[in-house]
């Protein structure tokens, strides 16, 4: 429920109401605006109705939040959230490009691709150290050694990093070396893990599950925010459909809809979304056009030798070309690269 206070209501008045909300056994939210204060009361609908906040003379309006997710809903916060990964704002005026290899493979591999993507305008370095592989016989990632290499690459290039955490037991290590925790598609509904990253307060890149609905994705984000961490970035990375010509079907509907329904930043991952390197640039342009806040793409200076996802990795030259071809679309969308 959203409680809009009258313009004359003071911070003191709001605090008294927040106390009242808490005493009813509901979760209070404080949302000061430019003209008036807005409060939220989250919890059991029946309790909400019994509290009669509308009878308070300082209350202008009481509105229900109709969606199941509350804190991530635009009903609760009409303006866009900006999440900072290190010194890079995500969700503001800038269209953010995150790039790097699928997996961290060696110092030389990571540093060379990091320098290259940085030169062409990437702001955040990606790289997997803990890899969720479909086959147990495939490369499973370098683990902690990979995290250390990401930290080293970050120190050298000045780019903050994003890397996947697959298990609760890995959260502390990933937090120690990495600026943004990635929750992979396969773990989008791992609620214990969502709560654990929620408790860290670190930025989280939450990827949509391959067969998750948009509502399920927003509810997964709600878990993280409800655990005390508002720094969530959503990511559409393609869903599973009957189509087999591409690895996944990149659902751009979801991007437009999530931007409407939620105040959280939304990224697009055209690498996993298509699984085809030649399709990464066209779908990146589409991401900018549809209103995404940025993209996360895979790049490898020698894709034929990549230990994972080589078929969808952009070479250095292809990454440079992507940035060039993306620019007019980002500008047309009213953003800057
Ligand atoms: C990745 O980013 O390398 C990855 C495994 O992504 P997803 O969870 O979207 O498959
Ligand atoms: Mn990958």
From TrEMBL:
InterPro entries: Aldolase_TIM (IPR013785), Class-I_DAHP_synthase (IPR052899), DAHP1/KDSA (IPR006218), DAHP_snth_FXD (IPR041071), DAHP_syn_2 (IPR006268). Gene3D superfamilies: Aldolase class I (3.20.20.70), Phospho-2-dehydro-3-deoxyheptonate aldolase, domain 1 (3.30.70.1140). It comes from the Bacteria. Residues 1-66 form the DAHP synthase ferredoxin-like domain. It holds the Pfam family DAHP_synth_1. Residues 91-330 form the DAHP synthetase I/KDSA domain. Keywords: Transferase. This is 3-deoxy-7-phosphoheptulonate synthase. It comes from Salinivibrio siamensis. The lineage of its organism: Bacteria, Pseudomonadati, Pseudomonadota, Gammaproteobacteria, Vibrionales.
